[in-house]
Amino acid sequence: MASKFLRLDLKDLAKGLSVAVIGVVLGALQQMLTKHGFDFGSYDWVAIFDLAINAGGIYLVKNFLSDKEGKVLGKIG
User: Fold this and answer.
1) Residue 4 included in any domain
2) Confidence of residue 74 (pLDDT cuts 50, 70, 90)
């Protein structure tokens, strides 16, 4: 953990962005393997980017509610 309880810093934002990028890559890979092959135009990009934004946002919320030791909501975790 890089930031204090109820705070985010640049490391948290960078990690949240990387989680979102990984989400896009994994979402596209999942669709490539299950449905469409290598036809990138037929992917459901809205669903892939929605997944990525949600994953990055959830990661940032988790970091926002965690302290430096990684305990969520301070002493509860």
Assistant:
1) no
2) low
